């Protein structure tokens, strides 16, 4: 028996293993259809395979899709978080966020840990452990699909890790999700959220498709951003602004700037004015996100009134701005709360 589930293998290896078991080459496509189109995760239910082949698959693979180490559901908003243990015993988390209007967003991780080490983020505490493979990113989606029973309407790369620091697997997984013979997601339903890795923004700008870009800005003050988003030392605000401008010029797509308001850190009137100047003349939208406190964090969320005033100040300056409701905070599944430990 191969020690892994079917989905643990990349497509070339899997094709070779199926051939080794004596199956014709079209079986790969049939199995792929069962998983990605019909959301069937049991060999026994793949009825266009012969009984003998189904028995053989059961005997040789440890199932279709890995079992998550744990699954948590938020009692208030229905968000679902899975902890997926990898073969080297590392683990990553992924989250499914349902909305009242029927939308279902899957938030996926691209790395174990993160080298950017934003001090307000639980994922960054451990530094980078390793990049995920395409297969490991795709498997997160399949596990969420299995547990929610729903195809996502949106995918956001906003889980653990900096997506643009693992570009090969990031874009490889997007190719899998948008494959019309599989899941067939529209590129405009996919968003990459970056801390501001300019080579990644440039690569995305040059790619075909309509993948959305979100940038975790948090502040438009270079000194403060060096502390809050340390990658700012490599890609400072003026260069970041040019890269965003270039993306919007080339794609015509609006960029979302994420701002998590931290009490007495970046929530003052002058902070709002700095952001308004940064946004001037740009095709951007500001999303104010409530900071999700986790045990041990030195930061606290800004007061609701402060958040309201911040929003008002931006609006007055003509900035397009909304306050995003944070999902999954009861199960430590909200932005910046994900880690490789099961503490949901
Ligand atoms: S906020 Fe994002 S970029 Fe920053 S440490 Fe966390 S995962 Fe990395």
List the helices and strands and how they pair.
Elements (H helix, E strand, L loop, with lengths): L10 H10 L5 H11 L14 H10 L9 E4 L6 E6 L5 E8 L5 E4 L3 E3 L14 E4 L2 H15 L5 E4 L9 H12 L11 E5 L3 H9 L5 E5 L5 H7 L8 H15 L3 E7 L7 H11 L4 E7 L13 H13 L4 E4 L20
Parallel strand pairs: 4-7, 7-8, 8-9, 9-10, 10-11, 11-12
Antiparallel strand pairs: 1-2, 2-3, 3-4, 5-6
Bound molecules: iron/sulfur cluster.
The site of iron/sulfur cluster has 12 residues, from loops.
Task: Write structural notes for this entry.
The protein has 344 residues and is an alpha/beta fold. The protein is built from ten helices and twelve strands. The protein has helices spanning 11-20, 26-36, 51-60, 134-148, 167-178, 198-206, 222-228, 237-251, 269-279, 304-316; strands spanning 70-73, 80-85, 91-98, 104-107, 111-113, 128-131, 154-157, 190-194, 212-216, 255-261, 284-290, 321-324. It has a ten-stranded mixed beta sheet with strand order 1-2-3-4-7-8-9-10-11-12. It has a two-stranded antiparallel ribbon with strand order 5-6. Strand 7 (154-157), helix 5 (167-178) and strand 8 form a beta-alpha-beta unit. It is elongated. The model has no long low-confidence stretch (mean pLDDT 92). Bound molecules: iron/sulfur cluster. Iron/sulfur cluster (SF4) binds at residues 114, 116-118, 121, 123-124, 160-162, 195, 336. Iron/sulfur cluster binds at residues 114, 116-118, 121, 123-124, 160-162, 195, 336.
What is the CATH topology descriptor of the largest domain? TIM Barrel
The appropriate CATH architecture of the largest domain is: Alpha-Beta Barrel
Task: Quickly count the domains.
Answer: 2
Strand residue percentage: 15-25%
Oligomer: single chain
Q: N-to-C SSE series? A: HHHEEEEEEHEHEHEHHEHEHE
- Unique bound compounds: iron/sulfur cluster
Could you name the ranges where pLDDT drops below 50 across 5 or more consecutive residues?
none
In one word, what is the shape?
Answer: elongated
What is the CATH top level name of the largest domain? Alpha Beta
User: What is the H level of CATH, i.e. the homologous superfamily of the largest domain?
Assistant: Aldolase class I
* Average pLDDT number: 92
Radius of gyration: 21 Å
Walk across the major sheet and give the strand order: 1-2-3-4-7-8-9-10-11-12
Question: Which structural category do the helix and sheet elements fall into?
Answer: alpha/beta
